[in-house]
Amino acid sequence: MPAEVLAGFTDALIAPPPQQPDPWQPVTAAGWHRDTDGTARSPDSMCHIELRPLSEFSGRSSWHVETCEPGDGQFPGPRIWHAYFDEGVPARLVGSFLTALADRSPLQRGMYDRTGHYSAVQEPSPLRPQQVVDAHTARIASLRARARSARKQQTKPATTPAQAHTAQPAPRR
Whose CA, among 40, 51, 80, 105, lies 20 to 30 Å from 64? Predict the structure, then answer.
């Protein structure tokens, strides 16, 4: 799984993104083919998303995302990676994952690194290496600041209610 996709999910754990009503929105906006049966596939048909219906054990659906090598005909090739979000994962986290997954911006990798799929097109980046490092450093600093802010919000002392006086028992004679 590309680190950028996983980062989209983990970043949303620290700082919730703006609320999007439909987790499918980033996928359909990126030109993915969405079917009426709760599935979508990438334009190159290598990635498939499925929203499985409610199970008999829970009141919510689960999400399955799978990337496979191109296959012959309607059968996909071998799996490259997959992700599963059960019914307990909030829709905003699934939406963040799908937003990162459908992002069309190129992934920054070293030329000739073997971290990508063999079918990935490698082109020289217009960015200098220091620009990539600086962008990553700025992203981490921003996440730290958001995490600190979220912690401060959680640890703010609540106003304490006035203490009620309890009746004292009368002294014994």
Answer: 105
Question: Would you say the C-alpha torsion 128, 113, 81, 44 has a positive or negative sign?
Answer: positive
Residue 40 has pLDDT above 90, yes or no: yes
Predicted model pTM: 0.68
Cβ–Cβ < 8 Å for 51, 39:
yes
Let me know: does 54 contact 62? Beta carbons within 8 Å.
Answer: no
Range name among 42-46, 71-75, 145-149 with the lowest pLDDT average: 71-75
Q: Which domain holds residue 13?
A: 3-106+126-150
Q: Report how far residue 152's alpha carbon sits from residue 159's, in angstroms, rounded to the nearest whole number.
A: 15
Residue 166 lies in a domain: no
CA–CA separation, 144 vs 117, rounded Å?
Answer: 31
For residue 173, is it within any domain? no
User: Does residue 121 sit within a domain?
Assistant: no
Q: Give me 23's structure tokens.
A: 């987790």
